Amino acid sequence: MGATLLCELGLFLLCTLVCSGHAQDAVLTIEPSWSSYFIGEFVTLKCNMNEGRDTDWYYASNKNGKTYFIYWKNGDYRLKLGSTYDSGEYQCSGTWKESNYTKNSNTVSLTVLADKPRATLTAGTTIIPVGGSVTLTCSVQSSDGWKYEWFRRTQTTSEGKIRDQQNRDIRVSQGGIYSCRGTRGNPVYYTDRSDDVTIEITFSNKVVVKQQPNWPQIFRGETITLTCEVQEGGETTEWEYEWRGPRTPTQWTHNNDVTFRVSESSSGDYMCKSRRRDDSYSSTEWSEAFTLSASTDQPKAQITSDMRDIPVGGSVTLTCSVNPSSSSGWKYYWYRDENSSEPLTTQDAVFHSNEQISVSQEGLYKCRGGRGNPVYYTEDSQEVSIDTKVDVPSPEISSFPILISIGAISGITFIFILLLLYCCKKFKGAANEQTLSQDEDQKQVYSSLLHGDRCVYETVRKCENTENGPAEGDYNNVTSVIQLSH
Question: Where in the sequence is the domain holding 344, given as residue range(s)?
Answer without folding.
Answer: 301-388
